[in-house]
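Reviewer 2 asked us to include a model.

Predict the structure of this chain.
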Amino acid sequence: MILVLVSTNVLFPPIPPEEPVAESPEMASPGPEDPVQAPPLTDQAPSTDSPPPNLFDLPSAASQGQTVKVVGPLYRMTFSTIGARLVSTELLEFTNFYQEGVAELLLEEGSGALGARIQAPGGELDLTEAVYKVVPEEGITLEKGGEPQSLTFTYRHPSGGLSMTTLYLFDPESYEVAVTTSMAGPGIERASLITEMGHGLAYNERRVAEESRILGYAAKHNSEGIQSEYFRKIDESESLEGPFEWLALKSKYFIFALLPGTGQAQSEQYLGAVSVGPAPGEDQAAIEVAQAIPGDGTIEYRLFLGPQDRQLLAAYGNELEEANPYGYRWMRVVVRPVVAIVLALLNFLHINLNLGYGWVLMIFGVLMRVLLFPINQRAMRAQIKNMAVQPLLQEIQKKYKDQPEKLQKEMMKLYKDHGFNPMAGCLPMLLPWPVLITLFFVFQNTIQLRGESFLWLPNLSAADPLYILPVVMGLSMFLLQWITLRSMPDPNPQMKIMMWLMPIMMTGIFLNFASGLNLYYATANIATIPQQYLIAKERKALKESPAQKSS
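Predicted model (structure tokens):
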């Protein structure tokens, strides 16, 4: 076999490959390693004397750039002259619980936000690495009550064929930053400005897992409403067609939003397509938005970099406060109006009584129980009346079990004669539930409670570090059920088991809930104890009354 193989190759050697014929420059086609050079931003024919400059080519940055700071009463922002990017936004009124210092809005390991690219029919000019000139070079300092000040970045292409100026206007009393970007160059009027929003927001809470569930983006479409997604679920690139009224990156308590125009009502302005894609970091995604460049080459838009204060965001009048809504989607129809009332009442008590939010929550808990007492008392009386009719109802059901029509007639007569209403005892008890459900979400996600201390509690938006409040809440729940069972003549074994089981279960569930929520429920339960005692006493008196016995 070896002899046959060797002799075959000797007798019939392989044909050597032909030498490739070199193509002329006119015939050569670009390969993947030789990308096509896009034409310049111009419709003019190229000069025969010298080739036109290619505006899509940028020389590599020879400078590392510099940073400038904007310091005001509310924030401290840091910009880089490389790409005129915003690389840091520190919110001075809020504590960072993830690491020591004040709250940081942007990612430290990222390259910042607000980098710009110009997308034209002939190609794309990436200015995120271009070196800008900044005025004033030393940055600016905003004084409380002072006038707004501006920071201006200017870039001019080496060929002289394109220039770009971005002006940021800062108000010392607001988290909003007004931005004006002006561009000049051939073909600009048919191009779009792509603004990069960065790769997400930084962690600021002690429990990363809790914040990870909320980190994401939201955008309000002009006709389709608000659409959103969590960063952790973005695993492929996608383009969302506009027009959009705003785009926002959100964490649990903070928001970074971009809104078109100046906010004036003279004309409707919208954002274009929004592009999203995966990013290498945990809980991160690449987000960018397009805006069409008008004929004069000037685009105006606004940024909001601050807390998710519902009152501040609602002032925009475009549902920006719903970027991070309270409650699940199916219950928001009920939760939204209640949220507005509850927050307005909490802020009213805080401002007008000049009390901390801990005392405000306690007053609110007592106030809620006082308001709900008539409803609970009415439900209890209806339950007693219904219980008195039960023996007569069972007798009718037994007597006419084979006569459905007669049974229905006699039951309706019994209801009418005794004023029996099957829902009378349940409906009053269900009415407070929308309020209770809303309070759960309010106390878990309200910026006013974040970092607010009370007695031994360092942060009303975080769990009680000593677990005192969950235990007090469980004990108060047990006492309420014990008072209720004492007023019943013959409580069944299941009710006795629940008297012990429910407080233990609820205590375990509430251990990791916000201490503000625990404070409210514990206060409300303690305020209910005297009410429950009076209701139990009245129930016992009604059961022993001659009128009830004769029934």
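The radius of gyration is 35 Å. The chain has a mean pLDDT of 80. We have added this to the supplementary material.
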